[in-house]
Amino acid sequence: MVKIISDSTCDLSQELLERYGIAVLPLQVTLGEASYEDGINITVDEIYRWADENKTTPKTAAPSVETAANVLRPWLEKGMELVCFSVSESMSTSANVMRLAAKELKAQERVTVINSQNLSTGVGLLVIEAAIMAKAGKSAREITESIKAMRPLIRASFVVDTLTYLHRGGRCSGVAALAGSMLKLHPKIVVSGGKMGVSKKYRGKLNRVLPEYVEDMKEELLNARTQRVFITHSGCEEETIRQVKTILEGLGRFEEILVTRAGSVISSHCGPGTLGVLFIANE
Question: Which of these, 91, 94, 125, lies nearest to 260 by C-alpha position?
Answer without folding.
Answer: 125
